[in-house]
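REQUEST ID: PR-0412
SUBMITTED BY: lab tech R.K.
PRIORITY: routine
TASK: structure prediction, single protein chain
INPUT:
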Amino acid sequence: MFDPVTMKLNVDPYILSALREDITSEDVSTNSVMPHPQQGEVDLICKEDGIICGLQVFERVFALLDENTRTEFFAQDGDEVKSGQQVAKVRGDIRTLLCGERTALNYLQRMSGIATYTRSVAQLLEGTKTQLLDTRKTSPNNRIFEKYAVRVGGGHNHRYNLTDGVLLKDNHIGAAGGVKNAIEAAKNYAPFVRKIEVEVETLDMVREALEAGADIIMLDNMPDDMMREAIGIIGGRAQIEVSGNVTRENISRLCGLGVDFVSSGALTHSAPILDLSLKNLHAI
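STATUS: complete
OUTPUT:
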């Protein structure tokens, strides 16, 4: 759940921007059929099984349009929901309910889809020490929502943005002239409280990263045999992350490696939505 400060400073502006995208001057359809205030209520119905996520954001969409709107929930973020289940009821001016419907559902469906997909992947790592991580492969201006959804689904967050941590990828290494140079430059520049992670693609790069004192070594797109050899070379002297086209369909091959982290961009860039709908709108 987002705390009040995060909600006001970092969440509300994105929601307001989404509402402005959908309503540039007025909701012509709503104003045509509902020219005057009228209290009403509508049901939030789940249309397929999954993990619900984003109820606070869903509620906030209507509250920003009209602070008198009230939402009653019958589930909470992280709950398993079933097709046909009523998840919430929203009460307020019917004009507000109609204006906010699509924006509220867009957030809720997207966040619930990510939580559902993440849960299905995280379950495959149960019983191992390996943590499932997301990446920065998020849709623009939706990272705060999508990374929250990963946590609700049972995953963990990698760095939030470029300010959050040092991750030296192939192009950083190329720009610096090698793994050792890149790590030394990062140690000289970055605050001492920041860990330094480096992405490697060969065993020679693994050895160079260890010698230069990397805190975390990311094995990127390595064949299985090479990964096992790299893990043996590292020998516990650095934390290990595995990355590269990791999906629900292929993550099982990584379960027995004993690495610290597996990161998957698919959690946010490939999760389908969870289908939800607002139904039974009527005056009260």
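NOTES: The radius of gyration is 23 Å.
REVIEWED BY: pending
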